[in-house]
Amino acid sequence: MLQIDRNETDGVTVLRLQGRLVLGDESQRLSQQIEQLMSQQTAKILVNIESVTFIDSCGVGELIASFTKVRKSGGTLKVSSPRDQVLEVLQVVRFPVVVEVHATEQEALASFA
């Protein structure tokens, strides 16, 4: 089960994901969270995936869809802190070419400034 903790740091909404980001309820939970943020006109979103233990193609697709939704509304979405095996999946599908991926949450937060 994917858990999402949400807080704000320096004007950036940080979503900390924990668990598996896969087809089904997990990816839908992220989609719903992004939709809620878009309805609140949140402009800066950081998705920390440090505690994501596994990601499948649907999970990657949901991250890309989230990035697209945020960008179309004039906002920015970045990703931080992927584990090695999750980063490997993201690199295989060339995710970092489309979405900024930072090694740490602090580095990502600084990039919004």
What attributes does this structure have?
113 residues; alpha/beta; Transcription Regulator spoIIAA; five-stranded mixed sheet; 5 helices; 5 strands; 32% strand; globular
Secondary structure layout:
Layout: E1 3-9, E2 12-21, H1 25-39, E3 44-55, H2 57-72, E4 76-80, H3 84-92, H4 95-98, E5 101-102, H5 105-111
Parallel strand pairs: 2-3, 3-4, 4-5
Antiparallel strand pairs: 1-2
Helix pairs in contact: 1-2
Write up what this structure looks like.
The protein has 113 residues and is an alpha/beta fold. It has a single domain (3-111), classed as Transcription Regulator spoIIAA. Helix content is 45%, strand content 32%. The protein has five helices and five strands. A five-stranded mixed beta sheet has the order 1-2-3-4-5, sandwiched between helices. Helix 1 (25-39) packs parallel to helix 2 (57-72). It is globular and about 30 Å long. The model has no long low-confidence stretch (mean pLDDT 96).
